[in-house]
């Protein structure tokens, strides 16, 4: 005989399960579950069963359990999860690699028809070609301003047409036409919306950052910190070279304008008094032409074999 539990008993069991998972796992993926069916969710559970647990539930119940558990344990970092529990969401508790789990979850997507009133998650484009519909169906295409022609007793779309734009609601005509064409333009699955790890919450895009991305972000932050340090004259390691150079320039400017001097400033003062002393000597006029003429008159070198031959013959003269 199947024992039916009351609502209160179910809430207590759910609260105990959620609190146990919070204590056992330090990594949680917050996922959106819009338009995800029960069979699809079961397939995802089977795919992640080795190292992850999926927990769905009402947001109010999850928020209450998290608040109470945070107070009982003194771990206030659990409260960072509450702002993320908006809409139709669930929690994936895992001990595996967060990026790998996120990629595994994204594999379980199922095609879905364009139902009336649905907000399109993507653009829907009807490609050109034969539709297989008989000429009596042309009224659907005329209502949606889709150019067609009759070819071999069937309706053929002449050019590609954007039927629904991303973010727009699907109308009854668009839904009916896509249904007749057998097109399931949308695909749905669990979508990672946030990541919780050891008390910190961050965007799922962080999981896909490469070492090059991190290096670029670090250099951008270092540049901003250096600029701020120079602007407010606060010493920092990255700004130290710039501060030393600026200080040297200021000291040099003071030395030039006053009687105060130091070895590095003496040369600058000397240059300002008489720049001609530091000019490179110009070559005498005509030296360039003479050198070119000498280069042209330079005799070609005599090969060593010819010299040896002449010396050998001269012995018999």
Give a short summary of the structure.
The protein is α+β, with helices and mostly antiparallel strands. The protein has helices at residues 7-24, 38-48, 59-73, 98-107, 138-143, 172-181, 211-232, 240-257, 263-273, 287-297, 304-314; strands at 27-32, 52-56, 89-94, 110-112, 124-126, 129-130, 148-151, 154-157, 161-164, 186-188, 191-197, 200-202.
Question: How do the helices and strands line up, and which of them pair or pack?
Answer:
Layout: H1 7-24, E1 27-32, H2 38-48, E2 52-56, H3 59-73, E3 89-94, H4 98-107, E4 110-112, E5 124-126, E6 129-130, H5 138-143, E7 148-151, E8 154-157, E9 161-164, H6 172-181, E10 186-188, E11 191-197, E12 200-202, H7 211-232, H8 240-257, H9 263-273, H10 287-297, H11 304-314
Antiparallel strand pairs: 1-3, 1-11, 2-3, 4-10, 5-9, 6-8, 7-8, 11-12
Helix pairs in contact: 1-3
Keywords:
317 residues, 3-stranded antiparallel beta sheet
Describe the structure.
By secondary structure, the chain is of the alpha+beta class. Helices cover 45% and strands 16% of the residues. The protein has 11 helices and 12 strands. The protein has helices at 7-24, 38-48, 59-73, 98-107, 138-143, 172-181, 211-232, 240-257, 263-273, 287-297, 304-314; strands at 27-32, 52-56, 89-94, 110-112, 124-126, 129-130, 148-151, 154-157, 161-164, 186-188, 191-197, 200-202. The chain has a 5-stranded antiparallel sheet with strand order 2-3-1-11-12, with helices on both faces. A hairpin with a 2-residue loop joins strand 11 and strand 12.
